[in-house]
Design goal:
Number of strands: 0
Protein name: DoxX-like protein
Subcellular location: Membrane
Radius of gyration: 15 Å
Keywords: Membrane, Transmembrane, Transmembrane helix
GO cellular component, one term: membrane
Distance between the termini: 25 Å
Membrane topology: Multi-pass membrane protein
Length: 121
Amino acid sequence: MKVAYWIFTGLLIAMMLMSAVTSFFPNPDGEAMMKMIGYPYNILKMLAVLKILGCIALLVPGFPRIKEWAYAGFTFDLIGAAYAFLAIGTPVSGVWFMLVGLLLVFGSYFCYHKLHPQKTI
């Protein structure tokens, strides 16, 4: 289970970091894409910082509540991105990257909870 956790988590972190790092560099295609879906271009930098913080949260041992927030944030980010593209008429084949990301989030989350069972109150 530990190997599966690190595979899912490693791929998820790689995906989120690639997305975050590219958001820090000016990109006319990215600006056009954001305009097309109706979001301000500057929101990409904020999302990039949050993705980096979420990746750190998943890597640092302990802090289970913050890990939950990171998983929730990644889920909201990916669902929101998929919805934004589907809402403007992008075919489902155009949002496969977000759906793969969701599978990575769910896989990592499931494995994390198998490795670290929650204590009942």
